[in-house]
Structure prediction request, 110 residues.
Amino acid sequence: MTNKAIFLDQVGYSPRMKVLQFLIEGKNFDYTLTDLLNAEVSWRTLNLLMPKLLDQGIIIKTRKIGRINLYKINQNNLVSQQLMELHHKLILKEVDKMKKRLNREKIQKS
Prediction:
C-alpha cells in the first residue's frame, strides 16, 4: 500500500484531496500550478479548485516568479494542520501494521 492509498482511502480520491495530499507531502516546498498536475487532476479542475483553497486559507501563495505563482499548504491554518496530522497518523498506523506483520513473519521463520 502506498502513502497515496493510505491517506486517500480514508478521505476520498476527490481532486481536492489529491491536491491537498500532494501539498501535505511536500509541505516544505512551494509549487507551480504545472507542478500540481502531478496530483493527477486536470488543468481545468486545478484552476477551479485553487481560488477556493486560497479563499479558505488552506493554501497560500508564497511567491511569484515572472508571471508564475507558487503555492504551498498553509501550515498556520487550522484545517490544514488537522489534515496534516491525520495524514501523519494514518502513515504511522500503517507503518506499525507493517512492523507487526514483519515481526510475525520473522517469528514464523525461526
Observations:
- The longest helix spans residues 78-109.
- The CA atoms of residues 12 and 18 lie 8 Å apart.
- The chain has one domain: 3-109.
- Residues 3-109 form a domain with the Arc Repressor Mutant, subunit A fold (CATH 1.10.10.10).
